[in-house]
Amino acid sequence: MTLRDARRLAGTAFAILALAASSVGSAAQSNAKIDVTGAWALEVTTDAAGTTTPSVTLKQDGTKLTGHYSSATLGEADVTGTVNGQAIAFSFTADVQGTSLPVSYSGTLESKDSMKGKISLGALGEGTFTGKRK
Hints:
Strands 1-3-4-5-6-7-8-9 form an eight-stranded antiparallel barrel. It has one helix and nine strands. It folds into two domains: 1-32; 38-133, Lipocalin, CATH 2.40.128.120. By secondary structure, the chain is an alpha+beta fold. The protein has one helix spanning 3-30, and strands spanning 38-46, 50-52, 55-61, 64-71, 75-84, 87-96, 99-111, 114-120, 126-133.
């Protein structure tokens, strides 16, 4: 083996090690758990109510969520839900003029401070939401 071949082999080995190290770092970062505990400001857009700005306070225990929802449109309610990787879902039952309305949010955590997804309002339809940590 010549000195030139040895240098080429060493350079190739270094490149492979650098690539492997960056892959491990990326995998660790994508598997990092986001704790959604805290207060969130939501912006919800639906055909039924237009754009509203409810808030939700969440407490995360493992993959389980509990919390409280507050909205001028849907009132106050306790929520339950889950966080699974980047997926988040929570729901509650609202009392709208004496009628029970199932409300569910499902979406994706974009970062530790933001989320987005869809809202289902039972018979009243669907919409979209974004959320930012307060």
